Amino acid sequence: xxxxxxxxxxxxxxxxxxxxxxxxxxxxxxxxxxxxxxxxxxxxxxxxxxxxxxxxxxxxxxxxxxxxxxxxxxxxxxxxxxxxxxxxxxxxxxxxxxxxxxxxxxxxxxxxxxxxxxxxxxxxxxxxxxxxxxxxxxxxxxxxxxxxxxxxxxxxxxxxxxxxxxxxxxxxxxxxxxxxxxxxxxxxxxxxxxxxxxxxxxxxxxxxxxxxxxxxxxxxxxxxxxxxxxxxxxxxx
Length: 237
Known about the structure:
By secondary structure, the protein is of the alpha+beta class. It folds into three domains: 1-84 and 137-152, Chitinase A, domain 3, CATH 3.10.50; 88-132, Thrombin, subunit H (Beta Barrel); 154-222, Alpha-Beta Plaits (2-Layer Sandwich), CATH 3.30.70. The chain has five helices and twelve strands. The chain has helices at residues 29-35, 58-65, 96-100, 155-165, 192-208, and strands spanning 8-17, 23-26, 47-50, 72-77, 91-95, 111-114, 117-125, 128-132, 142-152, 172-176, 179-184, 214-219. The strands form three sheets. Strands 1, 2, 3, 4 and 9 form a five-stranded antiparallel beta sheet that branches. A four-stranded antiparallel beta sheet has the order 5-8-7-6. It has a three-stranded mixed beta sheet with strand order 10-11-12, covered by helices on one side. A hairpin with a 2-residue loop joins strand 7 and strand 8 (128-132). Helix 4 packs across helix 5 (192-208). The longest helix is centred in the last third of the chain and has 17 residues, at 192-208. The radius of gyration is 23 Å and the shape is globular. The relative contact order is 0.15.
């Protein structure tokens, strides 16, 4: 089987720095814990890749197109096929006062946005902060071990997979011809993140699921009765 642009694949993978064999990223919780890179805020398990969406490095996408479902493959990518070569001009020195004025206390290894660019703090000292806008893994040869779990073909399953990516999985999904309805019950917490991620989900559905022309959102909100007031009589003095 040869996959093509637009295909929805669920994959498992682990990526290592080829020079020292340190784990850079993984979808497997046990690997993350064993290698010391476990993050409690990450949801481990198969991850979605939409081929042609530039969601993964070009070398990984190229290898995926030639794989098959249930196939596992190992390979090494040169920097230009992974996260790029390091660019010296992307390393800059900034005044510490610029961070302090925003109540930011930078430290080496800290990731933050500067002028809408993601940077890594390299060093702090003498009133200066050295930041690097290169990808943290730029310049590295990356070793991958990848397994294609499945290809998703049905529109409703594609929408669910996208929703899991944005952490806004609906309670129910219904597809009718070229329209889809996403239903969110009252049990789904509808905070600020929910509304932002839901908007991103709708945009992704219309971008990547070509057969769907309309997305309807249906939300359920229930009146939650307040706890009954205590009927205990006030204590007498």
